[in-house]
Amino acid sequence: MAKRCDLCGRGPQTSISRSHSNVATKRRQYINLQTKNVSGNKIKICTRCLKSLKRNLSAETEKGIFNKKQNKKK
Fold it and tell me: DSSP letters of the chain?
């Protein structure tokens, strides 16, 4: 089970933890993955992609509403 976004391919990054005595130990910083149903498929998606999907979907619906209003005026 990969901790990787299915849309953008982002994965975990490496960083260093420092103890009180300044000893460095490597660790992994995982991305915030969420499991969502997108168009009927269950995918693992990072929150950055989820936010952009939400933004794009809301823009599309606003355009659709705007076009419907224009059509009624004609």
Answer: -----TTT----EEEEEE-TT--EEEEEE---EEEEEETTEEEEEEHHHHHHHHHHHHHHHHHHHHHHHHHHH-
* Residue 57 or 5, more confident: 5
Does residue 36 sit within a domain? yes
Whether the Cβ atoms of residue 42 and residue 36 lie closer than 8 Å to each other: yes
Q: How many residues does the chain have?
A: 74
Pull the structure tokens for residue 61.
């619906």
**Which residues constitute the domain of residue 54?**
13-73
Output phi, psi for 69, to 5 deg: -65, -40
Tell me whether residue 1 is in a domain: no
Q: pTM for the whole thing?
A: 0.65
